[in-house]
Amino acid sequence: MQGRQGTGARRYTAARVMVAAAVAVLANAAAAQAQAADDATGYVQFVEDFTANCVARNGVQLQVKNTHPSRKIRVWLDRVQMGVGTGDRSRTELSPGAEPEPLGCSRTLTGTQEWRLVRAQFIE
């Protein structure tokens, strides 16, 4: 009889552990969802435009825009030329629904160029 009580106690403990784990998973999911709601990086988009100046260099004009429907975003960007950071960091504010902001050509006279998103935050 004692063996059966031990088994029941183990089942009860295992069930409590499973419930605690499920609660922890739900709490983590809620925290991740709340963080995602405040994460502006998902609303920053790089786009390309075929401007004459850039096309003449076999490149495209790189632009950045805000895709959020209602919130303004402040972004920090690093410029990289031919795979090497230039030390240039720009900061700009992107309004919702605004035209993309031009950054520069993907190709300069000396080689390729790109911008990388360092940080983005919603402006309250």
Would you identify the regions where 5 or more consecutive residues have pLDDT less than 50? 30-35
Strand % is: 35-45%
The structural class is: alpha+beta
> Count of DSSP helices?
2
**Distance between the first and last residues' Cα:** 65 Å
What's the gyration radius in Å?
25 Å
DSSP strand count: 7
Order of helices and strands: HEHEEEEEE
Mean pLDDT: 83
Record the strand order, biggest sheet. Answer: 4-3-7-6
Which term fits the overall shape? elongated
Instruction: Tell me about the largest β-sheet.
Output: 4 strands, antiparallel
Q: Assign a percent range to the helix content.
A: 25-40%
Signal peptide: 1-36
Protein name: Secreted protein
Keywords: Signal
Region (Disordered): 86-105
